[in-house]
Design a protein that fits this description.
Shape: elongated
Radius of gyration: 33 Å
Structural class: alpha+beta
Strand content: 5-15%
Helix content: 40-55%
Order of helices and strands: EHEEEEHHHHHHHHHEEEHHHHHHH
Distance between the termini: 83 Å
Strand order of the largest sheet: 1-2-3-4-5
């Protein structure tokens, strides 16, 4: 449909169009200039359309009809746009390119998390937390506007406010996101986190804290006396298995095989991304039997009133223990305590690695060794016996005490 577009003629065009579909009415005065009538709303929009030098047909919006006092004003702008299209300039492509160039840190964060298919859930949470907590002021800033000077200043500020570890984590997250963006936009400048290379990073002292052998009796007694039975059993399971915090916190009853006395964790729920079949020692078996006897409904071994439905961060309970004993440790320190006691039993390195789900050594011999549940059962019990002795738990009374305490 074509006519000379005038204000009166355009006003006679009904919108939405009775046919329910968009209709283009072309101007007889300027080829490629027209008005688009909506089929669903009362919108009337000036557009231009022509074939590009490369053969593609491109339609570009000039503007809504009410934006122009006179049709001639829209026709003049349309003439300029048609000239640009004739010369090969694509306003839509250039606008899209400009939008790509101005993608913000927040947008690139989402793109990174979506694009990294192999990224574990916990790692994705850590990246998001690092950016949203420590670099939130940059979330709406175009990525390319973040300079090395800004990175250096922000890094120091985070280090003072939240500590060196938080600063390192935030900038490692930014570095990963920037490298991901560079692979998709080669107009970005070099990664500004490179400013921190070498001595620019905070040096973190390795964590070596654990519950010493001479501290175990007092530590065990304080944990045993916790007012929360769930927290008590959770912390003791960590001490007697060496499981990681989230592995133990998210333990399901479906993971517990009482018949074969094995805890089975799928690869998707372990930090090592390898399944773990952990034989139960007598202490762990009695603890889990006692918890099962409580009869709490739900899938979780350590149910709690939390968003996840299970226990999460036991800092409060460890704080109570520290207040009672002066022994301040973290959850990971309990894993380290287990490893220290396990090593003192002179078990083979392969057995120790198998119990805590560490990767086997990269040598020809170890690649042929398969640490089965049965092979790990005796080492697991040996560690249990040693821990019970150090904690001054009577072996014959352990099961009774656990069952009674969990009621």
């Amino acid at each position: 449909m074509a006519m000379k577009l005038t204000k009166a003629a355009i006003e006679k065009l009904k919108a939405p169009h009775p046919g329910g579909k968009q209709v283009l009415v072309w101007d007889t005065e300027l080829k490629g200039f027209g008005v688009l009538i909506s089929g669903k709303t009362n919108a009337r929009t000036y557009v231009v359309q022509r074939r590009m030098p490369d053969g593609r047909t491109r339609r570009v919006t000039v503007g809504a009809v009410p934006e122009f006092e006179k049709v001639e004003d829209a026709r003049r702008k349309a003439g300029r746009l048609l000239g640009e299209l004739r010369a090969g300039h694509d306003p839509k492509a250039e606008k899209k390119k400009a939008q790509e160039r101005n993608k913000t840190l927040g947008i690139w964060l989402e793109a990174y998390l979506k694009g990294k298919k192999s990224l574990r859930t916990r790692s994705a949470e850590n990246y998001r937390h690092a950016i949203e907590r420590h670099l939130a002021v940059w979330a709406d800033r175009p990525l390319r506007e973040i300079s090395p000077d800004m990175v250096e200043a922000k890094y120091e500020a985070i280090g003072k406010a939240a500590g060196p570890a938080a600063a390192n984590n935030a900038m490692r997250a930014l570095r990963a996101i920037w490298n991901h963006a560079l692979d998709r936009d080669d107009t970005l400048p070099a990664n500004p986190v490179r400013r921190l290379k070498g001595d620019g990073w905070f040096k973190l002292a390795p964590r070596e804290r654990s519950v010493r052998s001479d501290e175990l009796p007092a530590f065990y007694a304080a944990v045993d006396a916790l007012p929360s039975r769930t927290a008590r059993d959770y912390l003791l399971l960590l001490l007697f298995t060496g499981l990681r915090r989230r592995e133990a916190a998210g333990l399901r009853w479906d993971d517990v095989d009482f018949a074969l006395q094995v805890i089975r964790l799928p690869a998707a729920r372990t930090k090592a991304d390898r399944k773990l079949d952990l034989p139960m020692s007598t202490f762990v078996r009695d603890l889990l039997v006692a918890r099962r006897a409580i009869g709490i409904e739900g899938p979780w071994v350590f149910s709690a009133d939390s968003k996840s439905g299970h226990i999460e961060e036991p800092k409060f309970h460890l704080g109570l223990v520290a207040k009672a004993t002066g022994i301040g440790v973290s959850v990971h320190d309990l894993r380290r305590s287990f490893l220290t006691v396990a090593d003192s039993t002179d078990m083979s390195p392969l057995a120790l690695q198998g119990l805590v789900n560490h990767a086997l050594r990269k040598d020809v011999t170890s690649n042929y060794v398969q640490m089965s549940v049965d092979r790990l059962r005796e080492p697991a019990q040996r560690v249990c016996d040693r821990l019970m002795k150090l904690c001054e738990i009577e072996a014959t009374q352990g099961a009774v005490k656990l069952e009674t305490a969990a009621q």
